[in-house]
C-alpha cells in the first residue's frame, strides 16, 4: 500500500466522486479490508450486494482499491482494501477546464455532505460515549484575516500536527483508542 495518492486525472476524480463509491471507500478505509457483503451490512440501507460489487470494481479500475488476502473460509468472496493510506485531491489540478472544475466542486459537495452526516451521527450517539470522549470532542470555528500564503502555511502546519498524532496512534498501544474524524475547512469568506 502506498502512503498517499494524489488524484490528478478527471476520470478518476469522477469515478471517486460518485456518492456510493465514496461511502464504500470510506467504509473500506475504516475497516481495512472487507467484502461486498460486509460493506452491504455496514451500509445497512438496502443497497444490493451486486451493486456494491459493481462500484468496488469501478474503484479498483482506477487504482483506488485493490484485492486483499481472503480472511474468511468462503473462498468465493472477493476481499478488498484501499490501495493507499490517504488520498489527496487539489482543486488546482482541475480548475483549468469547466468540466474539471465542475467535477471537483461536485466531489467537494459530496465529501462535505458525508462529513456532515458523520458529525450528525456522532451528535445523535454522543450520550453513548464515555464522559471522557464527550468532553474531548470539539466543534469550533474561527475567523482569521490571512493572505493566501498565510492560509497555505497554516493549513500545512495543521496537517503536520494531525499527521504527528496519526503516526503516534499507529505505533501506540490500541487500548483506549478510537478512530477520530478531524474535519478541517479553511476558505475565504465575504459577506453575502
UniProtKB/TrEMBL annotation:
Q: Give the Gene Ontology MF terms in alphabetical order.
A: DNA-binding transcription factor activity
* Pfam families for this protein: HTH_20 (PF12840)
Domain HTH arsR-type intervals: 11-96
Name by which UniProt lists this protein = Helix-turn-helix transcriptional regulator
